[in-house]
Amino acid sequence: MSFRKFWRYGLHLFLFLLTLVTTTLAGTEWMHDKLFFFSKRGFNIQGWMSKEEVFQGLAFSVSFLGVLTVHEFGHYLTARFYRIRVTLPYYIPMFFGITNSIGTMGAFIKIKERIFSRKEFFDVGIAGPLAGLVVALPLLFYGYTHLPPPEHIFSIHPEYQKYGLDYAAYVYQNTENQLYLGKSLLTLFFEKFVADPALLPPKYELIHYPFILAGYLSLFFTALNLLPIGQLDGGHVLYGLLGYKRFNQIAPFIFVLFIGYAGLGIITPKLNLISDYWKWITYVFYLLLVFQKIVPEKPQVLLLTAGVIGFQLAFSYVFPGIDGYNGWLVFGLILSRMLGVHHPPCPDESPLSKGRKVLGWIAMLFFVLCFSPQPFVLE
Name one GO cellular component term (predicted). Predict the structure, then answer.
C-alpha cells in the first residue's frame, strides 16, 4: 500500500476513532448531568468523570455512531455500485467539556465526479436515510421497551432522592432554562404505544437515557437530511421524482415556507418599531441574505422579504403566542449560502421506474414522521 493511500485511509479511521471518543464523553455528560471540566461548584478536578461513567457513555456513542455510520455507508456503497468515485465517510468530532454537545457535527462522504442520471441521484440520495432508519427504529424500540425502573433517576440526580418518586411535584416548579427533546410523530408513537407509562420519565429527563437520546438524534438528522431542498438527501430524492424543471420550481417555495415557519415570533404586531429597531434591522438583513440566492432579481428579493414578514405579522396577530423554531434559521442560512436550494441538472433526465417512485414518496413520508417542529426546547 502506498503512503498516500495509507494516509487517506488512516485519516478516515483517525476521525472515526476521535469521534467515538468525543461522542462517548458527550454521552457521559448527558447521562450523568455533569460536564467534563466542571462540577456543580465550578472548575474542579473532582468534577471530572470516572472511568465507569465514561464507559457508560459508550451506550450512547456506539448507538448513535452506529446509525450515522450505516447511513453514510448506505450512500457510499450505492455510489460504488454505480462506479461513482466517492470517498469513505469523514467524521467530524466536536467536544467542549464546558457546555453540553453531542460529540460530533455528523459525517459526510465526498462524491468526486458528476452523477450521470436522475436514477443515480435518487438511489445514492435515498440509500443513506433508509439504511439509517433500519437501525434507528429498532434502537428506539429497544430504548422505549427497556426503560430502567423509576429509581434510576436518582443515579442521575441524587438531589431528587429526598423527595422520593414524587420528585416531579417539587423539582419542576421552576422550569426556566430546562432543556428537553421535542416531539416527532414517531417519538409520540413510541411514547404512547410502546413505552410502559409507569417507567417513562418526565420529558425533562429523557435526554439522560442513552438509547432514547441516540435514537432521537438519529431521527432528527434523518429528517434534516430528508428535507426536500437543494442537494440534501431529500433534495436528491425529490429531484429524482420530479425532474430538474419541476424540482427547481418547488424547492424555493418549500424553502420560503421553512424560513417563514422558523422566524415566527421574531417580528410580531407588539414589537415596537422604534425601540426594537435593531431586531427589525437584523431580521430584515437575514431574510435579504437568504433569499438573495433563490430569486434572480433584487426587486424580487425585496418583495419576497416583505411578503414573509407580512405573513409572520398576520399569523402572530391571529395566533398570538405561537412561535416557530428560531434555531432553524441557522440551518436556513447554511442551506441558502453554502449548500444551495436548487438542484443541478444531469445528462440523463429519464423518469424513474414505478417502484422507485413509490419508494421516493415513502421516504418523503418518513421525513414527515421524523421531523420535529421544535427539536430541542429550552424553556
Answer: membrane
- Asked whether residue 379 is domain-assigned, the answer is no
Q: Is residue 377 part of a domain?
A: no
Q: How confident is the model at residue 44 (pLDDT cuts 50, 70, 90)?
A: low
Assigned C-alpha cell, 152: 434510576
126 or 99: which leads in pLDDT:
126
pTM: 0.93
Report how many domains make up the chain: 2
Among 168, 195, 226, residue at a domain's last position: 226
216 and 251 co-located in one domain: no
Residues 164 and 253 in one domain: no
pLDDT in tens, 234-293: 999 999 999 999 999 999 999 999 999 999 989 888 877 677 778 889 999 999 999 998
Q: Are residues 222 and 253 in the same domain?
A: no
pLDDT tens, residue by residue, 182-206: 999 999 999 999 999 999 999 999 9
- Which of 198, 226, 254 is the endpoint of a domain? 226
In a domain? residue 360: no
